[in-house]
Amino acid sequence: MKHIIEDIKKNIFKNVYLLTGKEAYLRLFYKNKLADAIVPPSDTMNRSVYAGKGIDLNELIDLAQTLPFMAERRLIIVEDSGLFKGAAPDEMITFLSNIPEETVIIFNESEVDKRLKMAKAVDKNGYIASFDAPDDEFLKKWIAGVLQKEKKKIRESTATFLVERVGNDMENLHNELMKLVFYIGDREVVEKDDIAEICSVHLGDSVFNLLDAIVAGNQKAAMVCYEEMYLQKEDPIKILRLLSQKFEHIYQTKKLVPFHMGLKEMTDLIGTRDFLVKKYLVISKRMEEDFLLRAIEECAKTDYYIKSGRMEGNLALELIIVSLIKNRTGAFRQDRYPE
Questions:
Q1: What pLDDT digit, counting tens, does each position of 287-303 carry?
Q2: Residue 172 pLDDT greater than 90, yes or no
Q3: Structural contact between residues 121 and 153, judged by C-beta atoms closer than 8 angstroms
Q4: Distance CA 103, CA 38 (A)
Q5: Residues contacting 59, CB < 8 A, separation 6+
Q6: 3-class SS string, 69-138
Q7: Bridge partners of residue 128, in order along the sequence
Q8: Which of 29, 143, 214, 225 stands the most exposed, by the fewest C-beta atoms within 10 Å?
């Protein structure tokens, strides 16, 4: 990101950029910022977009070799071409080393294999920017910045609560922030009650509520949590995958506690977010390792039975929830699976 900002400030651009990573909102933001600095949106003569697989590469190369019309540069934007996932034509790889000085190509790709020749050619002749999920500190500052533009404020603890409830997808977060701005009207400060009142609950947060009920052995609360997810038409496989992931992370957290490491080190090792690890640390004190391992195994079995068509998804979820609660201290029932 810093390289892109520097290029924009200096008005000196590389011939090719590759924007990639899971955070689509950031990729879109920096693609637009970079593109608008190279060629204004109004200059349709020198600004072209190619999208999707099956792009006519000969046409693209011919256009890239055409001098800009009464302008300093020609810009070509290529969206999700798939050229970075498999074997790309040799002529395209060769061309990336011979792009005319006046032409800039921006690839915006959701999936990239950096081991392939296309990515290596971009790395050699231009710049690769990876936009992965931002950390919590970045998100909180970004949330404050978005609200500041709307002449609103938010406390750090409230911003943390918003991320916990909504998730870390920046596009979704931005939509929720705009809802909050409209909701609070003339009021200046966004409060936790505002978020609880109107912001959509992220599936991960709903699964955490389910997990809390399971840990507490509260079957009624657990089934209410699941019913809410069912009414929102959440995919049983996705719920199960998240539940299994949380059991795995709690188990990993529990195993790391005796090493007395810091929160950041623990977060990096588990591969999740710091506020989640804080939750896992609390939950791990209430769950035995043996139960966690068996719970992970149960989730894997249930996943298999749903995907193989031997059990209907929603019924399977209800059964595993009941089983997890009833067997917090005992052996798991084996009779709920069809032969």
A1: 889 999 999 999 999 99
A2: no
A3: no
A4: 10
A5: none
A6: CCCCCEEEEEECCCCCCCCCCHHHHHHCCCCCCCEEEEEECCCCCCCCHHHHHHHHHCEEEECCCCCHHH
A7: 18
A8: 29
User: What is the C-alpha separation between 63 and 100, in angstroms, rounded?
Assistant: 11
Tokens of 212: 């809390």
The overall pTM is greater than 0.85: no
Token pair 């978020």: residue = 195
Token digits for 86?
């498999």
- From residue 51, alpha-carbon distances to 42, 62, 306 in Å are 19, 17, 36
Q: For each of the domains in the chain, give its residue range(s) and CATH number, in order of start.
A: 2-130 (3.40.50.300), 136-198 (1.10.8.60), 203-326 (1.20.272.10)
Question: Got the DSSP string for 174-196?
Answer: HHHHHHHHHHHTT--EE-HHHHH
Residues 125, 6: Cα–Cα separation, whole Å: 17
- Other Cβ atoms within 10 Å of 238 Cβ, number: 13
Question: What tens digit of pLDDT does each residue of 324-338 get?
Answer: 988 764 444 444 444
